């Protein structure tokens, strides 16, 4: 199935993922035993990026003794197996095979009966936290929980409301961010916060001067500002670079001249920030702010202005695009789909 915006959906019944000692690029394999899930759902985006889910039908119910219909434990365990066993082979920059796990979620479809309009899926927490769970599916029922799951990812065609045709939304969830202990997962290696410097009234003059010269050490932004745009906290912790627009002399608009390396990102109460970190002390403000510790600043080959000087406009973008951008509108918006 292909939509007008370029998203392609493939639904496969019992695809076979085989063992191999000689994997080809762009395919999914199982290194141990042959895997054959009931239903394989794949979304391909205009940029050729793909996202996959697995659904497996079971015709049994495990009663919890209190009248709640659950999927059998062995069925849920099988979903963990599918996600762990299936490996996607991509070609790395050096030409060698690069492995990744392609399955974002695996779910049991089972004949449970619920008043879905007035209750919550007993697997909802697990679906959001780890991407494993189940959906009741019965003939003659609305099966609203499964419908809501699919509409959240692809939109509602009856209402002609589609998601933005970009895969960011699938990787922003908590379940997609679970890495091996001691490691961190990131969607973008050069995620950049492009934002203006706030009002300078009452701030230390050296604070502004350091931003003009590209020697600033800190930048802060309200937690409520990022929450208003539905930017998840783990997305903010993914930020690796920061580009700050400031007034230079008599310019009518803020100008971005440098891009900073971000050494750390943490939440701090405004009253706990020093004059060096924020330009002035605000001892009566206990609201939380993101405090970014800045490192080396790279001058842009061509500075550009940030339009809308009266608005506090900020966005997440990529460093490589920012280095060659000529104006604010040239910057690609990352994680825009979640806002």
Task: Explain what you see.
β7 (86-91) and β8 (97-100) form a beta hairpin. This protein has helices at 73-85, 124-130, 144-154, 168-171, 205-213, 223-228, 233-236, 275-278, 319-322; strands spanning 8-13, 27-30, 39-44, 50-57, 62-63, 69-70, 86-91, 97-100, 103-110, 132-136, 191-196, 218-222, 241-246, 254-269, 288-306, 315-318. By secondary structure, it is of the alpha+beta class. It starts with 7 loop residues before the first strand and ends in a 17-residue tail after the last helix. It has two domains: 8-177, no CATH class; 191-338, Sulfate adenylyltransferase. The protein contains nine helices and 16 strands. The chain has a six-stranded mixed β-sheet. The protein has a five-stranded mixed β-sheet with strand order 1-3-4-9-10. A three-stranded antiparallel β-sheet has the order 2-7-8.
> How does the major sheet shape up?
6 strands, mixed
Q: Count of DSSP helices?
A: 9
Shape: elongated
Can you give the helix content as a percent range? Answer: 10-25%
Provide mean pLDDT, rounded.
86
The neighbouring-strand order within the major sheet is 12-15-14-13-11-16
Low-confidence stretches: none
How many separate domains?
Answer: 2
Strand content: 25-35%
Class by helix and strand content? alpha+beta
Q: Give the terminus-to-terminus CA distance.
A: 27 Å
Radius of gyration: 24 Å
Q: Strand tally, please?
A: 16
N-to-C series of helices and strands: EEEEEEHEEEHEHHEHEHHEEHEEH
């Amino acid at each position: 199935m292909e939509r007008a915006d370029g998203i392609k959906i493939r639904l496969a019944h019992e695809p076979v993922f085989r063992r191999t000692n000689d994997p080809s690029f762009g395919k999914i394999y199982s290194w141990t035993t042959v895997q054959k899930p009931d239903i394989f759902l794949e979304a391909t985006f205009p940029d050729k990026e793909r996202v996959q889910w697995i659904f497996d039908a079971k015709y049994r119910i495990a009663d919890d003794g209190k009248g709640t219909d659950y999927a059998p434990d062995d069925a849920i365990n099988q979903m963990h197996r599918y996600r762990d066993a299936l490996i996607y082979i991509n070609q790395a920059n050096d030409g060698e095979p690069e492995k990744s796990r392609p399955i974002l979620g695996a779910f049991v479809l089972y004949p449970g009966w619920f008043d879905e309009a007035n209750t919550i899926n007993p697997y909802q927490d697990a679906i959001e936290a780890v991407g494993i769970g189940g959906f009741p599916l019965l003939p003659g029922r609305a099966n609203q929980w499964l419908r809501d799951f699919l509409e959240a990812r692809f939109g509602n065609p009856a209402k002609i409301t589609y998601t933005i045709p970009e895969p960011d939304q699938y990787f922003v969830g908590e379940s997609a961010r679970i890495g091996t202990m001691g490691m961190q997962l990131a969607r973008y290696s050069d995620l950049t916060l492009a934002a203006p410097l706030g009002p300078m009234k009452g701030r230390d003059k050296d604070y502004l001067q350091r931003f003009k010269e590209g020697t600033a050490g800190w930048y802060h932004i309200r937690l409520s500002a990022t929450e208003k745009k539905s930017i998840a906290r783990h997305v903010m912790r993914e930020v690796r670079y920061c580009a700050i627009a400031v007034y230079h002399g008599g310019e009518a608009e803020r100008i971005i001249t440098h891009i900073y390396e971000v050494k750390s990102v943490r939440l701090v109460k405004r009253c706990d920030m020093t004059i060096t970190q924020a330009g002035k002390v605000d001892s009566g403000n206990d609201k939380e702010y993101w405090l970014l510790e800045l490192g080396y600043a790279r001058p842009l080959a061509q500075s550009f202005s940030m339009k809308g000087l009266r608005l506090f406009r900020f966005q997440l973008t990529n460093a490589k695009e920012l280095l060659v951008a000529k104006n604010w509108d040239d910057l690609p918006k990352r994680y825009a789909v979640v806002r």
